[in-house]
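B., you asked whether I could sanity-check this one before it goes into the benchmark set. Here's the sequence:
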Amino acid sequence: MKSKTFLPLVLALFTVSIASPVRAEPSADAQIQRGKYLVERVAMCADCHTARDWKGKLDQDHWLEGAKLGFKPTGIGPWAGAAPAIAGLPGFTNDEQAVKYFETGINGVGKASRPPMPQFRLEHEDAVAVVAYLHSLKPLSPK
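And here's what the prediction gave me:
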């Protein structure tokens, strides 16, 4: 008799656990590591937002502190001549504004960034991770 009631109970619990997954919030360190991966390995933000040394290598002492762009468009149009500092998120008044920017591509004053900056449309969790990573960075040395 016990085995007849045990199997349906196990199946019911298994079905409930599959139907309603519980997702734990990632730790702050896990968010920062995810953001670092997205910034450094996927979006390659340092290519524009980090100055280069005389050999053309990214200047680790000024990581994501902004840089002049070393290329220009072939056509005429709005074009940024420099990439702003993003270490520490100095261009945003709060993290929510920065998350919205990475989700929509629209900045705090309601405009899209000028090319060559792409208008990212990140998922919310990825935008939060990118902001956590950038916010964790502090400029390494004065300019």
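One thing to flag: The helical segments are 2-19, 28-42, 46-49, 95-104, 124-136. Otherwise nothing jumped out at me.
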